[in-house]
What does this fold into?
Amino acid sequence: MVALAATAKAQTPTPTPPPQPQDVDVIRTETDLTNLLFTATDKNNRYITTLHRNDIRVVEDGVPQTVFTFQRETDRPLSIAFLIDVSISEERTLPDEKGAARTFIENVIRSEKDQAAIIPFEGYAHLEQPLTRDVIAIYRALEAVEVAFPAYTGSAPSLGGISSGPGTIAPPREGSTAIWDSVALTCRNVLGRSMTQRRRAIILLTDGQDTSSRVSRSTAIDQAIQSETVIYTIGIGDKRYDGIDKNALTNIAEKTGGRAFFPKKNADLLAAFQEIEQELRWQYLVAYSSTDKAHDGKYRTMTIEIANAELAKEKLKLRYRPGYFAKRGQ
It folds into this structure.
């Protein structure tokens, strides 16, 4: 299902015929195939890059699944949206956020294949730079991001798609912050429309203090899962305001297969981006065809377990998206 991963050949059960490259396009020809990305770290938080297919097992809703594909370091293109809170509570930290994001772009984005988007938000999300491989355009859009005080001054109109009117929550007011609306719209209207064979991720820079979203956090999480998007949250803000909602940011990150970071100084912020970079480079991709063939749109839980008894003793930490929605009506 997801699109984030790393390069390696899947193991073959017999020495002949010669193994064929595990191309992601081949994976997608099987409509029931579920793609799942994960990372493995040891007790010292070092990435483990030597796992093999037989070292893990995948369980869906309590039922073991047969893994058809196992890859390391898949070189799949990236689609990354930088979702940047520009409410007044970010005034002091925004310059550091922009600097760290630029360094990340310089280190990670490959202009021949990767894409990035710049989306500042307050009460509304604004697509200042749609997904592009043009790194100079990404830099320019990032540099132009400013705090919305007293009102948003950017050139992009707000992203639409959330209902307003009788029986719905009122539209955001000036000075408000709609984090979950922004996440949901970015997943659906920006990342969800990118090419299929991509790893999709949101890097969300905010204090987590949502004041005006018309959709819930759980709805935003569902939208991320449906669009196969992992969310990395960087909790950063100004203690003069309401502080950082660590629970909310941890929740949306973990339920989409990402991580939450809470930097206390600029060095921590740079380190957070470096951790995200490492995670994107050291992921594994597994693919399986679910034994449950019902196309009912229901949520299914997924678990990855260490099957190798010796590795199990090392108590590795596996990080992945814990579930997905089955396709409907096929």
